[in-house]
Write a structure and sequence with these properties.
Layout: E1 8-13, E2 24-30, E3 34-44, E4 47-54, E5 59-66, E6 77-80, E7 84-90, E8 112-114, H1 134-138, H2 144-214
């Protein structure tokens, strides 16, 4: 039996000294293709243990985390997707300051990384969008299908723009053709008119000369 692999863990946080719902940890355990029936998640006041198995990848995962400070495990929110396990862990103590790190041990571990998609600086928390808080922000992760729909909608709009441009170009080409058609007969007509005018001018001269000769 192969040794369990330690999955990549991403984290970010928010802090608030008055609002518990804005005083939490974002935690994402990257474990693709792990079915709910094949995973175990144990969240305690100062620790988390995850074990899982991917049938498609034939791989076992295991990770244990001991947090820097306590959390309120009763308020834990979990969102399971085909790519990961995303959690919101509410900090037990309301504080304006960030935790200096996620884990109790200050030693760096290779599998733990900052989730820069969710991270904001401590002094910029008030500027973070509302949908980035709690499960609202996490709810966007399985909404990738919605983004695909938006892309499809954008594509449709682009198609409409292209068609309208093509539609607008056709009359301009027709106008140019009409102008060319108008110009061509006009030139021929002018040649004919000029010839008639020259003939008309020439006729009286000839007649006049004949009259003078007769006279």
């Amino acid at each position: 039996m192969s040794t369990a692999q330690t999955p990549e863990v991403l984290w970010a946080q928010r802090s608030n000294k008055t609002d518990a719902e804005k005083n939490f940890i974002y935690l994402t355990i990257t474990v693709p293709d792990v079915q709910k029936s094949n995973l175990k998640l144990d969240v305690k006041s100062q620790s988390l243990t995850f074990s899982g198995h991917s049938d498609s990848l034939k791989r076992d995962y295991h990770v244990e985390l001991e947090f820097y400070d306590k959390i309120d495990e009763a308020e834990t929110k979990v969102n399971h997707t085909a790519k990961n396990i995303a959690l919101v862990l509410r900090k037990k103590e309301l504080k304006e300051e960030f935790w200096p790190r996620l884990l109790k041990d200050a030693k760096k571990v290779h599998f733990l990384k900052t989730d820069f998609d969710k991270w904001v600086d401590e002094d910029e928390q008030d500027e973070a969008p509302e949908d980035d808080l709690g499960m609202g922000g996490m709810g966007g992760m399985p909404g990738m299908g919605d983004m695909s729909s938006m892309m499809g909608g954008a594509g449709g709009d682009f198609g409409g723009i292209d068609f309208s441009k093509l539609g607008g170009a056709q009359p301009e080409e027709d106008d140019d053709d009409d102008d060319d058609d108008d110009d061509m007969p006009a030139l021929e007509g002018e040649d004919d008119d000029d010839a008639d005018e020259e003939g008309a001018k020439a006729a009286p001269k000839k007649t006049g000369s004949k009259i003078e000769e007769v006279a």
